[in-house]
Amino acid sequence: MGDFFKKNLCYYFGLNVVLIMKKFILFLIVITSLCANIFSQSKWTRIINSLGNQEEYSNSIAVDSLGNIYSTGAKENPLPRIQTIKLNSFGNLLWENVIPAVSGSWIGYSVVCRNNNSILVSGFGQDSSFILNFNSQGNLLKKYSYIIPGSYFIQVHHMIKTSNNKYLLCGRIDYTSGYAALINSDFSLAWQKVLTDTVPNNWRVTESGTFFNGYYYFIDDWDIPYLTKIDSLGNIIWGKPITYNGNYSRIWRNKIDVLNGRLLVAGLTGDTTQSQSFKTAFELIDENGIVMKKSIISNQNSEGLNDFQIYKNRIVYVSSIFNSSGQSSKASVNILDTNFNLLKTKPVLFNDYTELYSVQLNDSFYYFSGLTWKNSGTNQRSDILIIKTDSTLEIPPVGIKETNTFVSDFALHQNYPNPFNPSTKISYSLKKSSAIELKLFDINGRMIKIIESGFKPAGSYEINFSSAGLSSGVYFFSLYSEGILMDTKKAALMK
């Protein structure tokens, strides 16, 4: 009897161990799949537009440490007004702020994150350069203006936050001179410079700047590009022209950064022997202005760089691809190594025409912004295009067309418990009345069922969701308002 009891005890104990191990393995599979899918779902493409026939575009993006994306550009109706938006890490539009034009045009050209609670925007605003300070909720805290007496307008093309916590402004004055300014961390003006040229009729536009070994470097754009070195007090040390030998004699649309202890200047260059032939050119320059290395990228038949960023021994740049008439038709995303070898390239085209103007990189993702254009009959308009991808350069299809409805009015909360079996609670809240749908999708994106739908007054709601009829795996709950996706949560079912 004792042996029989022991044998049965061992049998049942062994059976329970097997069942527990199976459950544990299934749990690991589900969690691994959930994590992998969360990562893959984090790549997205968004086209953002407003109601009505208004042109909108993004000139610059910035990403904070929480993964929120900020974009600035313009909304034209009919005059351009500075438009700044914020998206969360899933690409949902959180807020929009449009600054009315006091007079003439106002365009946002550059945005930087001051910290997770504040962003800064600069651009084109008539008679002064400026910085707009927004909080993370989209409220304009203050406008800082920097006036040069006698100037008709100052246009800031580029603003960067330096490693010594100051801000460089780069741009142009009255279509004739370059502009460079250093702004202290408290937004007081350290110095600003009008960069003129001794060459007659050589207009200058200071396109980009950087801080390197205690000096500030600025690269100009136009007929003859110049590299200027300025010390911390605003004294110009030297200015030198940047040209390219051989058939490619000019460089413009210039950007500057630091690569392996050298200045890296990049831009668009034209072949003087061929009409409408353009390439992207890079030059490594030492701090004395001596060119150490030159490279022209052999990519598309004709292309021109719009922006680039260096991150972990990779150079990622966005460019315009030109047709035989010399007009841009679509965009291109490109990855180089630090020897300027082309590792990967990806053409990008949504609707009839696409431009990418800005690139931002971090440990996990690549971000790009610009515009997409539609030529459908009388509804010709540009919309904001923002892409979040990774080093694979996989560009997902457009997932959400955002309108003026913001997800801050709607909240879909994470289900609890998660993982779950046999049921879980799903809750959501509405700040205003709306026709909603709560849908369930499987891991392949197929809709399984509509959990709840109908017109709902403002308030909070909770559903006890049963897993009856479902097998173990990863699922998605998505909340829609008036047919527009507001938010999605991931859940794991373990049976």
Helix/strand class: mainly beta
CATH architectural designation of the largest domain? 7 Propeller
In total, how many domains does the architecture comprise?
2
Distance between the termini: 37 Å
Low-pLDDT runs: 9-13, 29-41, 400-405
Provide the residue-averaged pLDDT. 82
Order of strands, main sheet, comes to 26-27-28-1-29
Instruction: Please report the total strand number as a whole number.
Output: 36
Supply the CATH class of the largest domain. Answer: Mainly Beta
Largest sheet: 5 strands, mixed
Overall helicity? under 10%
Give the overall shape: globular
Rounded to the nearest angstrom, the radius of gyration is 27 Å
Could you describe the 3D structure shown?
- The chain has 2 domains: 32-40 and 406-493, Macroglobulin (MG2) domain (Immunoglobulin-like, Sandwich), CATH 2.60.40.1930; 44-402, Methylamine Dehydrogenase, Chain H.
- The protein is built from 1 helix and 36 strands.
- A hairpin with a 5-residue loop joins strand 12 and strand 13.
- The protein has one helix at residues 2-41, and strands at residues 44-48, 55-63, 69-76, 80-87, 93-99, 107-115, 118-124, 128-135, 140-147, 154-161, 167-173, 177-183, 189-195, 204-212, 215-222, 226-230, 236-241, 248-259, 262-271, 278-285, 291-297, 303-311, 314-322, 328-337, 342-348, 353-361, 366-376, 379-389, 398-402, 410-412, 423-430, 434-442, 447-456, 459-466, 473-481, 484-493.
- With 495 residues, the protein is mainly beta.
Summarize the structure.
With 495 residues, the chain is mainly β. It contains 1 helix and 36 strands. The chain has one helix at residues 2-41; strands spanning 44-48, 55-63, 69-76, 80-87, 93-99, 107-115, 118-124, 128-135, 140-147, 154-161, 167-173, 177-183, 189-195, 204-212, 215-222, 226-230, 236-241, 248-259, 262-271, 278-285, 291-297, 303-311, 314-322, 328-337, 342-348, 353-361, 366-376, 379-389, 398-402, 410-412, 423-430, 434-442, 447-456, 459-466, 473-481, 484-493.
